[in-house]
Write a structure and sequence with these properties.
42% helix; binds pyridoxal-5'-phosphate; 12 strands; 373 residues; alpha/beta
């Protein structure tokens, strides 16, 4: 059994994906071919943003936005402690300081009360200037923008939505990657919309930020080729990856998103009388189910369950075993065990079950039966 069955998806979309790859190889336009522009147009229209700028990966996407906003040394950027490394790494990469917030146990997403407290504490200490918030749409569910956006407004902070896992989710019909001042996603193969390698994208309605990021992505280019007006980098999505993403985006939109929500409902229904806490989605919110993560009673039960499932050939993964404020890479920030108790507790109890749009009811029955046994 696969944790995320990319092979089943390829079999379904094989002829379109193969044709797309062949067309790029035949054209020889491996960099910035027409498929890249076509994909950017479709992505922007789908999420409902004016601009989409594709780039090399989801980590670059986040960093490029912070650079465009001129966030750097002396600035504080608020990030949840329970997320993938990139969300906080990019803050440090631009020279700013990540300030960690706790999460809500029910949604795994940034806790608005903890956020407001962290902003107030940073202001009262007076060492760092609060500049931005990076809410993460963890495991596919959009962060609680109803609560976070008013806090950003109150303190005059920018909001950068990390939609690497949230692509396709929505809040009352407003799609992930359309919240805040800018948003990003990742096309890493296992994400809700994945390519066959690395890739990422930035979304914004701001014309000048979009133009600046387009320049950053191609060595700080000006209006002509070989005119460099600033220091940039090389961060582009390969034409091959764009050609693979075009049919995958259509399948995602047309049936995969519904299929993965169906799989989530089956799990939640069948696990209702188990000892596990199943994931909850806020009213009016829709998840794209990057992960289906359950909570166990404690670490011992979680590890035992993971081992039992593994023995039966069922892969289950721990996302994430350690909160970011306790990672060695951030030891210099001075956090200690107990600072963000919900994030710390969840790391010990969380377990992600196999999840993807091609998961059928019989397979879910088998996984649930093994869990209950
Ligand atoms: C995967 C991920 C990223 C980074 O994406 P890459 O394409 O792997 O660089 C950033 N944030 C979150 C929450 C992610 O899950």
């Amino acid at each position: 059994m696969q944790f995320r069955d990319l092979g089943a998806q390829y079999l379904k979309l094989k002829s379109e994906i193969d044709d797309g790859i062949q067309a790029v190889v035949t054209s020889g336009k491996f960099i910035s071919g027409p498929q890249v522009k076509e994909l950017e147009g479709e992505l922007a229209a789908y999420v409902g943003r004016k601009h989409c700028i594709s780039c090399a990966n989801g980590t670059d996407a986040l960093e490029l936005v912070l650079r465009a906003w001129e966030i750097g040394p002396g600035d504080a950027v608020f990030v949840p402690a329970f997320t993938f490394m990139s969300t906080a790494e990019v803050v440090a990469l631009v020279g700013a300081t990540p300030v960690f917030t706790d999460i809500c146990e029910a949604t795994f997403n940034m806790d608005a009360v903890s956020l407001e407290n962290a902003i107030a504490k940073t202001l009262s200490e007076g060492k760092l200037k609060p500049r931005a918030i990076i809410p993460v749409d963890l495991f596919g569910q959009p962060a609680d923008y109803d609560k976070i956006l008013p806090i950003a407004e109150k303190f005059g902070l920018k909001v950068l939505e990390d939609g690497a896992q949230g692509f396709g989710g929505d809040v009352r019909g407003k799609l992930a990657c359309s919240f805040g001042d800018a948003s990003t996603t990742s096309f890493f193969p296992a994400k809700p919309l994945g390519c066959y390698g690395d890739g990422g994208a930035i979304f914004t309605d701001d014309d000048s930020v979009a133009a600046l990021i387009r320049s950053f992505c191609v060595h700080g280019k000006g209006s002509e080729k070989y005119e460099n007006v600033r220091i940039g980098r090389n961060s582009r999505l390969d034409t091959l990856q764009a050609a693979i993403l075009l049919p995958k985006l259509r399948a995602f939109r047309d049936f995969e998103l519904d299929a993965v929500n169906q799989a989530a409902s089956w799990y939640t229904e069948k696990l209702a009388d188990s000892r596990l806490v199943t994931p909850s989605v806020l009213p009016g919110f829709r998840s794209s189910w990057a992960q289906y993560s359950v909570l166990c009673v404690d670490e011992e039960q979680r590890n035992a369950l993971q081992a039992k499932l593994k023995a039966q050939g069922i892969p289950a993964m721990v996302y994430y075993p350690r909160p970011l404020h306790l990672q060695k890479a951030f030891a210099g920030l001075g956090y200690a065990l107990g600072d963000l108790p919900v994030a710390e507790s969840v790391c010990h109890r969380v377990l992600a079950l196999p999840m993807h749009p091609y998961l059928d009811q019989a397979t879910i029955d088998q996984i649930v039966a093994t869990i209950k046994a």
